[in-house]
């Protein structure tokens, strides 16, 4: 009986996926790689704010390789950030201490639209749970307004030694209006693209889901990726998303199909692209350097 139910469910999922319009799928894939490009653009301007110039194409490849590393290491961005730092340090001659701090600064800029997105998602469905975000907002504000002290603490924790000139360039990042504007803008666009990708995927399987619901699903996907202990969140992300979509009213077959398509794009294609970059663009040298650290 269990086997019959499993076979019947599998046939139902395959039936849904078999009729997915290819143009929706291609557009969804396009939003994913456009997001990777925006990540590279953001990093380029943050690096430029410290006086370092790196070709955009090189940063794009570093981000793809980092995605592959994220997908084979536990926790969200478990190893991808280290690989990105090593990539531009090994192949572009950027000091590791500079690449490390710029990656940290990227995450600070990224947290601003994420906090807005999480707040909107919570407030649409409930207000009491949104109060839990207050400490996070306060913490983010303290980092922003006490940036110099935060940098000193970060450098001490990671045992990074900077020259006086390098320290001044990094501290001055917060005052670089164009860097912050582009960083927050590109980060916001990435989250818009994530929601758009979910919209395209749900349209592909015949569902017209409201954007507030998709924002909440995107937030859940982010949180599952951060909390997951398996490489790339495999198993944890899929089961969590399927459960969340079912709870939100998705028919079980369509919930599974949505998650399978999303993970095919973000996990399977992302991993393949990153692996190809590692093998064709000097990534093997970076990989060896990273393993030896």
From TrEMBL:
It is found in: Cell membrane. Keywords: Cell membrane, Membrane, Transmembrane, Transmembrane helix. The chain crosses the membrane at residues 22-41, 130-147, 205-229, 267-287. GO terms for cellular component: plasma membrane. It holds the Pfam family LPG_synthase_TM. It is a multi-pass membrane protein. The keyword Iron does not apply. Its main location: membrane. The keyword Transmembrane applies. PANTHER family: UPF0104 MEMBRANE PROTEIN MJ1595 (PTHR39087). Belongs to the UPF0104 family. This is Integral membrane protein.
């Amino acid at each position: 009986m269990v086997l019959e139910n499993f076979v019947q469910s599998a046939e139902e999922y395959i039936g849904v996926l078999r009729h997915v319009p290819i143009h929706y799928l291609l557009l969804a894939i396009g939003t994913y790689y456009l997001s990777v490009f925006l990540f590279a653009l953001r990093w380029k301007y943050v690096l430029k704010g410290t006086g370092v110039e790196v070709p955009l194409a090189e940063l794009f490849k570093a981000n793809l390789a980092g995605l592959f590393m994220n997908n084979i290491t536990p926790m969200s961005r478990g190893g991808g950030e280290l690989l990105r730092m090593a990539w531009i340090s090994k192949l572009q001659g950027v000091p590791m201490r500079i690449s490390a701090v710029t990656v940290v600064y990227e995450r600070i800029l990224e947290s601003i639209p994420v906090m807005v997105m999480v707040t909107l998602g919570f407030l649409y469905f409930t207000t009491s749970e949104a109060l839990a975000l207050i400490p996070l907002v306060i913490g983010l504000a303290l980092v922003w307004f006490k940036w110099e002290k935060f940098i000193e603490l970060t450098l001490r924790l990671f045992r990074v030694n900077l020259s006086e000139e390098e320290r001044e360039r990094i501290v001055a990042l917060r005052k670089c209006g164009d860097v912050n504007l582009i960083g927050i803008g590109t980060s916001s666009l990435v989250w818009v693209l994530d929601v758009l990708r979910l919209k395209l995927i749900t349209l592909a399987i015949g569902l017209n889901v409201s954007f507030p619901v998709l924002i909440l699903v995107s937030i859940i996907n982010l949180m599952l990726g951060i909390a997951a202990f398996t490489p790339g969140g495999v198993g944890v992300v899929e089961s969590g998303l399927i459960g969340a979509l079912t709870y939100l009213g998705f028919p079980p077959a369509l919930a599974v199909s949505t998650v399978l398509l999303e993970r095919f794009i973000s996990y399977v294609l992302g991993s393949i692209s990153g692996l190809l970059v590692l093998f064709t663009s000097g990534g093997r040298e970076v990989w060896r350097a990273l393993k030896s650290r």
